């Protein structure tokens, strides 16, 4: 695990405030040279500091206005094969392995309740999946963020 120095954290705070900021804008904001910012950005990217940029795409205009969380119970010996098969379902946009009674928390997008039923059926049809529990998202109340965490450091 790499650690970030004060300048790295300042750069990350600036990016959290304005994720689309250019290298030149970041250099101006931080009072640094463009080359310094570019070098730091390259090093941060190589260290894995940045998550996927696809995360910012809204599925609503693509025809998927609803989001749900599917808790999936899987036979442990089939877990990796089940995850691989679930990953083939296009409406699955994210999944986390969990400790505790639920094995996977799968985030899906869907067109409507009937579409959600179909997607849940596809997950249930995966070999090794024992059962699912599905909850429709009523709305994102706290979006993904790191600025408050960065401010604490």
Describe the structure.
The protein has 153 residues and is an alpha+beta fold. The protein has helices at residues 6-17, 23-30, 34-46, 79-86, 113-124, 147-152; strands at 66-74, 92-97, 104-110, 129-136. The chain folds into two domains: 6-50, Orthogonal Bundle (Arc Repressor Mutant, subunit A), CATH 1.10.10; 60-136, Alpha-Beta Plaits, CATH 3.30.70. It is built from six helices and four strands. The protein has a four-stranded antiparallel sheet with strand order 2-3-1-4. Strand 2 and strand 3 (104-110) form a beta hairpin. Helix 2 crosses helix 3. The model has no long low-confidence stretch (mean pLDDT 93). InterPro entries: AsnC-type_HTH_dom, Dimeric_a/b-barrel, Tscrpt_reg_AsnC-like, Tscrpt_reg_AsnC/Lrp_C, WH-like_DNA-bd_sf, WH_DNA-bd_sf. GO terms for molecular function: sequence-specific DNA binding. This is DNA-binding Lrp family transcriptional regulator.
